[in-house]
Amino acid sequence: MAARRTGIAAVAAAAFFAMVSVSLAQAPAPDATPSGPPNVTAILVKGGQYTTFIRLMKETQQDTQLNSQLNNSFNGNGYTVFAPTDNAFNNLKPGTLNSLTQQQQVALVQGHVLPQFYSMESFQTASNPVRTQASGQDGPFTLNITATANNQVNVSSGVSEVTVNNALSDKKPLAVYSVDKVLLPLEFFGAKAPAAAPAASKDGKTKKGEAASGPAGSDDEASPTSAAAGGARAVAWGVAAMAAVLGYLL
Ligand SMILES: *[C@@H]1O[C@H](CO)[C@@H](O)[C@H](O)[C@H]1NC(C)=O
Ligand SMILES: *[C@@H]1O[C@H](CO)[C@@H](O)[C@H](O)[C@H]1NC(C)=O
Ligand SMILES: *[C@@H]1O[C@H](CO)[C@@H](O)[C@H](O)[C@H]1NC(C)=O
Ligand SMILES: *[C@@H]1O[C@H](CO)[C@@H](O)[C@H](O)[C@H]1NC(C)=O
After folding, report:
1. Which residue positions does the secretion signal occupy (predicted)?
2. pLDDT of 155 above 60
3. Ligand 2, closest atom to CA 68?
4. Which fold has domain 40-182?
5. Nearest ligand by distance to the CA of 158
6. What band does 38 get if pLDDT is binned at 50, 70 and 90?
């Protein structure tokens, strides 16, 4: 009887330890998954409709830049990315991206990245204009963020305005939101810029041409006039000398 009791106790104890060790083994598992910095490329790839934006980020090296900033906790405030869909890029006028220099493409991509993490709710606390990663380089490249009716949020570059769609990532330090339009910077695509750009370059050319002929012309004019004046003087002297000779002869 006693032996049987110890036997049952041993089995119970073994079962208890087995259960404890199973629960101990399971416990750390959920904590192990969210380690390491977020990877913006992986998040966009998973989204499935951001191939153009992924390519642009890669070509402008903004993917590795943002990933290393996320890893170095370069900025304790985190980051927010507005990721235009492939449709958004397809809806641009043909040649829009190719009209930009490499430097401008960098600014275009950086203009979609905010050096601050915003949850959908915290967009309401954003104070406009909001600085982007492109701000303070070639220009302001700011965005205006406004909460609209029915808890929607709009973001505007001054050229394009779009409603912020679903979050591909909403965990600090990285928020990534899908947008249906490319946020074209006011600095490159402002109402004045496209109209003014050809006129400006024409003006620039004519001005350059004028400027080129201007100073050169005035320099050339200055020397011919002085040469002419010198010539006239020489002629005058010549005439006077001739007159003198003639006078002497007569
Ligand atoms: C981020 O994810 C992309 C796509 O999955 C991968 O190619 C790249 O190596 C990752 N980068 C880092 C720093 O893990
Ligand atoms: C993050 O930075 C650490 C230290 O510099 C480095 O060892 C690690 O590989 C980096 N991780 C990623 C995913 O880039
Ligand atoms: C943001 O809003 C201000 C005030 O309405 C306006 O002056 C500015 O041009 C806007 N900027 C952008 C980038 O939309
Ligand atoms: C928000 O943006 C959308 C898309 O451009 C536009 O149709 C809508 O009028 C905007 N809403 C407000 C309140 O500005």
Report:
1. 1-25
2. yes
3. 14
4. FAS1 domain (2.30.180)
5. 3
6. very high
Rounded distance from Cα 161 to ligand 4 centre (Å): 7
Closest ligand 2 atom to Cα of 71:
1
**Does the beta carbon of 42 lie inside 6 Å of ligand 1?**
yes
Residue 201 has pLDDT above 70, yes or no: no
Indicate the pTM of the whole model.
0.70
155 DSSP β-pair partners:
145, 162
Residue pointed to by tokens 């001739």? 242
Rounded distance between C-alpha atoms, residue 89 and residue 52, angstroms = 7
154 lines ligand 4 (CB under 6 A): yes
Q: How far is the CA of 155 from the centre of ligand 4 (A)?
A: 9
Cβ–ligand 1 contact at 41 (below 6 Å): yes
pLDDT, position 72:
85
Give the confidence band of 222 by pLDDT, cuts at 50, 70, 90.
very low
Which residues, 6+ apart, have CB-to-CB distance to 79 below 8 Å? 66, 69, 70, 113, 114, 115, 116, 117, 173, 174, 175
Which of 161, 163, 203 has the alpha carbon at shortest distance from 186? 161
| Residue 242 DSSP SS3 | helix
**158 φ/ψ sector (left φ>0, alpha ψ -120 to 50, else beta):** left
Ligand 3 probe mutation, 82, 112, 128, most atoms within 8 A of CB: 128
Enumerate the domain spans of the chain: 40-182
- What is the β-pairing status of strands 113-114 and 79-84? antiparallel
